[in-house]
Amino acid sequence: MYKELEKFTVKGDFTYTQDDSLEEVCNASETGSGVFVVYAVEGDNKELIMVASTGTVQNDGTLKSKNGGLHDKIVNGHQFAKTGRKYSWPAQMKLEGIERLEVSWYETFNADIKLIPTYIEGKILQDFLDENGRLPRWNVAF
Predict the structure, then answer these.
(1) Would you say 46 and 122 are in contact if contact means Cβ atoms under 8 Å apart?
(2) What angle do CA 51, 98, 52 make, to 5 degrees?
(3) Average pLDDT of the segment spanning 33-47
(4) Which top-rank group of organisms is this from (predicted)?
């Protein structure tokens, strides 16, 4: 776990397989903004494969967030194709032979804490780059 994520108290996680409905297993906040990290899990091996965020802090210090919050970003955000993750993730998992995903989400901007979601996303990506010399494999353009 990345130390930047330890300070967040509104958080959760879930496991996803190709046979699951992403809409049903995703327990992320429907009103909150923040970051989510995705791990590919194969037996005892766990690899960070993606980091993403949702929510934009405005010049006046308020948060502009899309309807559906983190939940909608995880389930319906586009990745690999111009289609929502609820469709693209199972296809990509099959293509790569990924057994399951573990997704952890964190509200980074709320009444108690005010950290810009894209800042936290960038910090985690920078730490990963420093450690591995590359970005997580699902963070690169396809």
Answers:
(1) no
(2) 10
(3) 94
(4) Bacteria
